[in-house]
Amino acid sequence: MTFKAHLCAGLFAALVCGGTPAIASSIVPAAHQPTYAEGDARAPFGWVDFCRRMPSECEIDRTQPDRVTMTPHLWKLVGQVNTRVNREIEPMTDQAHWGTVESWDIPTDGIGDCEDYALLKRQRLSAAGVPRRALRMTVVIDEVGDGHAVLMLRTDRGDFILDNKRDDIRAWADTGYTFVKREHESRIGWTSLGGARSPLATAAR
User: Fold this and answer.
1) Which domain holds residue 103?
2) What is the pLDDT of residue 195?
3) Secondary structure string (H, E, C) spanning the chain
4) Tally of domains in the chain
5) Is residue 30 part of a domain?
6) 47-101 per-position pLDDT tens digit
7) Whole-prediction pTM
8) Residue 32 domain flag
Protein backbone atom coordinates (compact mmCIF):
# COMPACT_ATOMS: atom_id res chain seq x y z
CA MET A 1 0.00 0.00 0.00
CA THR A 2 1.33 3.45 -0.84
CA PHE A 3 2.00 6.17 1.75
CA LYS A 4 -0.99 8.12 0.41
CA ALA A 5 -3.25 5.08 0.75
CA HIS A 6 -2.04 4.45 4.32
CA LEU A 7 -2.59 8.10 5.14
CA CYS A 8 -6.11 8.19 3.73
CA ALA A 9 -6.97 4.96 5.56
CA GLY A 10 -5.65 6.41 8.82
CA LEU A 11 -7.57 9.64 8.29
CA PHE A 12 -10.78 7.73 7.57
CA ALA A 13 -10.34 5.67 10.74
CA ALA A 14 -9.75 8.82 12.78
CA LEU A 15 -12.90 10.42 11.43
CA VAL A 16 -15.06 7.35 11.98
CA CYS A 17 -13.69 6.07 15.28
CA GLY A 18 -12.69 9.10 17.26
CA GLY A 19 -15.47 11.65 17.28
CA THR A 20 -15.02 15.13 15.84
CA PRO A 21 -12.37 17.16 17.69
CA ALA A 22 -11.33 20.63 16.61
CA ILE A 23 -8.85 20.26 13.75
CA ALA A 24 -6.48 22.43 11.79
CA SER A 25 -7.56 23.86 8.46
CA SER A 26 -7.42 21.42 5.54
CA ILE A 27 -5.67 24.09 3.46
CA VAL A 28 -2.00 23.28 2.94
CA PRO A 29 0.09 25.65 5.10
CA ALA A 30 2.55 28.17 3.71
CA ALA A 31 6.08 26.98 3.07
CA HIS A 32 8.95 28.12 5.29
CA GLN A 33 12.64 27.43 5.77
CA PRO A 34 13.28 24.18 7.66
CA THR A 35 15.53 23.74 10.68
CA TYR A 36 19.13 22.74 10.02
CA ALA A 37 21.17 20.13 11.85
CA GLU A 38 24.60 21.18 13.10
CA GLY A 39 26.35 17.97 14.09
CA ASP A 40 25.86 15.40 16.81
CA ALA A 41 24.16 16.02 20.15
CA ARG A 42 23.87 13.94 23.28
CA ALA A 43 20.61 12.03 23.46
CA PRO A 44 18.38 12.82 26.45
CA PHE A 45 18.77 10.27 29.24
CA GLY A 46 15.05 9.51 29.13
CA TRP A 47 15.29 8.73 25.41
CA VAL A 48 18.23 6.35 25.93
CA ASP A 49 16.29 4.48 28.61
CA PHE A 50 13.12 4.46 26.45
CA CYS A 51 15.08 2.91 23.55
CA ARG A 52 16.54 0.29 25.85
CA ARG A 53 13.03 -0.71 26.94
CA MET A 54 11.32 -0.29 23.55
CA PRO A 55 14.00 -0.72 20.85
CA SER A 56 11.49 -1.11 18.02
CA GLU A 57 10.30 2.47 18.65
CA CYS A 58 13.82 3.79 18.02
CA GLU A 59 14.81 1.89 14.87
CA ILE A 60 15.67 3.91 11.76
CA ASP A 61 14.33 2.67 8.42
CA ARG A 62 16.46 4.45 5.84
CA THR A 63 14.18 3.27 3.03
CA GLN A 64 11.58 5.75 4.33
CA PRO A 65 11.70 9.42 3.28
CA ASP A 66 13.05 11.84 5.89
CA ARG A 67 10.51 14.41 4.68
CA VAL A 68 6.97 13.95 3.42
CA THR A 69 4.90 15.88 0.92
CA MET A 70 2.41 18.11 2.70
CA THR A 71 -1.12 17.55 1.46
CA PRO A 72 -4.55 18.64 2.72
CA HIS A 73 -5.11 15.09 4.00
CA LEU A 74 -1.85 15.08 5.95
CA TRP A 75 -2.46 18.56 7.37
CA LYS A 76 -5.90 17.50 8.59
CA LEU A 77 -4.59 14.25 10.02
CA VAL A 78 -1.79 15.80 12.07
CA GLY A 79 -4.21 18.38 13.42
CA GLN A 80 -6.63 15.68 14.50
CA VAL A 81 -3.96 13.54 16.15
CA ASN A 82 -2.45 16.51 17.96
CA THR A 83 -5.79 17.67 19.33
CA ARG A 84 -6.99 14.21 20.30
CA VAL A 85 -3.83 13.25 22.20
CA ASN A 86 -3.77 16.63 23.95
CA ARG A 87 -7.29 15.96 25.22
CA GLU A 88 -6.77 12.29 26.12
CA ILE A 89 -3.70 12.60 28.34
CA GLU A 90 -3.76 13.97 31.87
CA PRO A 91 -0.64 16.11 32.43
CA MET A 92 1.61 15.01 35.27
CA THR A 93 5.34 15.33 35.93
CA ASP A 94 7.53 12.23 35.89
CA GLN A 95 8.37 12.86 39.55
CA ALA A 96 4.70 12.75 40.53
CA HIS A 97 3.87 9.91 38.14
CA TRP A 98 6.87 7.60 38.44
CA GLY A 99 8.89 9.02 41.32
CA THR A 100 11.81 9.88 39.02
CA VAL A 101 13.02 13.12 37.44
CA GLU A 102 12.84 11.87 33.85
CA SER A 103 11.07 8.91 32.25
CA TRP A 104 10.03 8.81 28.59
CA ASP A 105 7.03 6.56 27.97
CA ILE A 106 4.10 6.00 25.64
CA PRO A 107 1.29 6.98 28.04
CA THR A 108 -0.88 3.87 27.92
CA ASP A 109 -2.30 4.75 31.35
CA GLY A 110 -3.58 8.13 30.12
CA ILE A 111 -1.05 10.13 32.17
CA GLY A 112 2.14 11.81 31.01
CA ASP A 113 4.24 14.91 30.45
CA CYS A 114 5.46 16.64 27.29
CA GLU A 115 7.66 13.89 25.85
CA ASP A 116 4.98 11.27 26.50
CA TYR A 117 2.41 13.29 24.52
CA ALA A 118 4.93 13.54 21.67
CA LEU A 119 5.76 9.83 21.71
CA LEU A 120 2.07 8.90 21.50
CA LYS A 121 1.51 11.31 18.59
CA ARG A 122 4.54 9.82 16.85
CA GLN A 123 3.20 6.30 17.35
CA ARG A 124 -0.29 7.14 16.10
CA LEU A 125 0.87 9.04 13.04
CA SER A 126 3.23 6.21 12.16
CA ALA A 127 0.38 3.72 12.50
CA ALA A 128 -1.67 5.94 10.16
CA GLY A 129 1.02 5.65 7.48
CA VAL A 130 3.20 8.71 8.06
CA PRO A 131 6.86 7.60 7.73
CA ARG A 132 8.35 7.60 11.21
CA ARG A 133 11.63 8.84 9.79
CA ALA A 134 9.85 12.16 9.10
CA LEU A 135 8.56 12.32 12.70
CA ARG A 136 11.36 13.55 14.95
CA MET A 137 11.31 13.87 18.71
CA THR A 138 12.69 17.33 19.47
CA VAL A 139 13.95 19.16 22.56
CA VAL A 140 13.43 22.91 22.86
CA ILE A 141 13.62 25.70 25.42
CA ASP A 142 10.11 27.07 25.87
CA GLU A 143 8.82 30.60 26.34
CA VAL A 144 9.63 30.65 30.06
CA GLY A 145 13.09 29.13 29.71
CA ASP A 146 12.21 25.53 30.63
CA GLY A 147 13.18 22.39 28.74
CA HIS A 148 10.31 21.03 26.69
CA ALA A 149 9.77 18.14 24.23
CA VAL A 150 7.67 18.33 21.05
CA LEU A 151 7.18 16.28 17.90
CA MET A 152 8.57 17.70 14.66
CA LEU A 153 6.98 16.73 11.34
CA ARG A 154 9.48 17.28 8.50
CA THR A 155 7.84 18.09 5.15
CA ASP A 156 8.56 19.59 1.76
CA ARG A 157 7.02 22.82 3.09
CA GLY A 158 9.20 23.02 6.18
CA ASP A 159 9.17 21.64 9.72
CA PHE A 160 5.93 21.70 11.72
CA ILE A 161 5.52 21.26 15.48
CA LEU A 162 2.98 19.13 17.34
CA ASP A 163 2.85 20.47 20.90
CA ASN A 164 0.89 19.54 24.01
CA LYS A 165 0.64 23.26 24.89
CA ARG A 166 -1.66 24.01 21.96
CA ASP A 167 -3.93 22.27 19.48
CA ASP A 168 -2.93 24.20 16.36
CA ILE A 169 0.05 22.98 14.36
CA ARG A 170 2.68 25.68 13.82
CA ALA A 171 5.77 26.09 11.70
CA TRP A 172 8.81 25.75 13.97
CA ALA A 173 9.62 29.45 13.49
CA ASP A 174 6.17 30.45 14.80
CA THR A 175 6.44 28.70 18.17
CA GLY A 176 8.56 31.15 20.16
CA TYR A 177 10.91 28.30 21.16
CA THR A 178 14.67 27.84 21.02
CA PHE A 179 15.43 24.59 19.19
CA VAL A 180 18.14 22.56 20.88
CA LYS A 181 18.25 19.09 19.28
CA ARG A 182 16.22 16.34 17.65
CA GLU A 183 16.40 12.67 16.75
CA HIS A 184 18.84 11.93 13.95
CA GLU A 185 17.08 10.90 10.74
CA SER A 186 19.81 8.55 9.47
CA ARG A 187 20.92 6.59 12.54
CA ILE A 188 20.08 6.04 16.17
CA GLY A 189 21.21 9.18 17.95
CA TRP A 190 20.49 12.90 18.16
CA THR A 191 21.61 15.93 16.20
CA SER A 192 22.08 19.53 17.31
CA LEU A 193 19.81 22.30 16.03
CA GLY A 194 22.27 24.92 17.19
CA GLY A 195 19.86 26.82 19.42
CA ALA A 196 17.83 28.13 16.46
CA ARG A 197 15.36 30.68 17.77
CA SER A 198 11.76 31.33 16.80
CA PRO A 199 10.85 35.00 17.18
CA LEU A 200 7.21 34.77 18.23
CA ALA A 201 5.89 34.40 21.75
CA THR A 202 3.86 31.32 22.56
CA ALA A 203 0.52 30.95 24.26
CA ALA A 204 0.84 28.36 27.01
CA ARG A 205 -2.08 26.02 27.48
Assistant:
1) 3-16+38-197
2) 86
3) CCHHHHHHHHHHHHHHHCCCCCCCCCCCCCCCCCCCCCCEECCCHHHHHHHHHCHHHCCCCCCCCCCECCCHHHHHHHHHHHHHHHHHCEECCHHHHHCCCCCCCCCCCCEECHHHHHHHHHHHHHHCCCCHHHEEEEEEECCCCCEEEEEEEEECCEEEEECCCCCCCEEHHHCCCEEEEEECCCCCCEEEEEEEECCCCCCCC
4) 1
5) no
6) 999 999 999 999 999 999 999 999 999 999 999 999 999 999 999 999 999 999 9
7) 0.84
8) no
